[in-house]
Structures are given as C-alpha cells and as structure tokens.
Specification:
Blueprint: H1 2-6, H2 13-25, E1 31-34, H3 43-55, E2 63-66, H4 76-83, H5 91-101
Parallel strand pairs: 1-2
Protein name: Radical SAM C-terminal extension domain-containing protein
Pfam families: Radical_SAM_C
Organism: Diacronema lutheri
Length: about 100
C-alpha cells in the first residue's frame, strides 16, 4: 500500500482483492497490469508483489501484463526523477526481478 499511496493510485491492496473477487465471482476473465520499478519500489518489494499475485488466493488473475515504470515527459514522475526524488533501480535488477516472476 505504501507504493500505491506514494503514486497517488487512489486504491489499496484491499480494493484490488475486492475487485478481483467481484469480477471472478461474476464470471469475468481478469487481466491485471503490473508495474515494477515505481517510485518507492525496490527489487525485493516488486518480487513480493509478483509472489503475492502468483500465489495469493485473493489475487489470482487469468493473465498478467508487466509494464516497467518509465520516466515520461510532463509527468510527476519526471519531476521526481529530475529532482533526484525518484531513482529507478538498475535495468539489470529490473530484468532479473521480472524473470524471477515467471
């Protein structure tokens, strides 16, 4: 929840679990989008996110899409990056974290 709050996501892990349950109970196929390397994240936090999504009974999805965070123009993340408030972890660690998720 710390990363979600930092990026002003407007939802919590509990919100996600509830939404997944409601969708699955209604017979929907659920596709989740996961974004490692967000501000406030680390390889260990992202690995824990992937582990929760793959083994947590309340987090089961039919499909994942993984989109690593990118610094894009005209965003708050760009401002944080330019000021040094957000420093993404190295690409090599990001690749290993994603590969370990499979």
């Amino acid at each position: 929840d710390g990363v979600l709050a930092l990026i002003n996501r407007g939802a919590t892990d509990e919100d996600t679990r509830r939404a997944l349950r409601l969708l699955k109970d209604a017979g929907y196929k659920v596709d989740v989008h996961l974004m490692p390397n967000l501000p406030g994240a680390s390889p260990s936090l992202d690995a824990a996110m992937f582990e929760t999504m793959s083994s947590g009974a309340d987090h089961q999805a039919d499909q994942w899409k993984i989109y690593p965070c990118e610094v894009t123009p005209w965003t708050v993340i760009q401002k944080w990056h330019e000021s040094g408030r957000f420093v993404p972890y190295p690409d090599e660690e990001l690749i290993e974290t994603i590969l370990d998720a499979k």
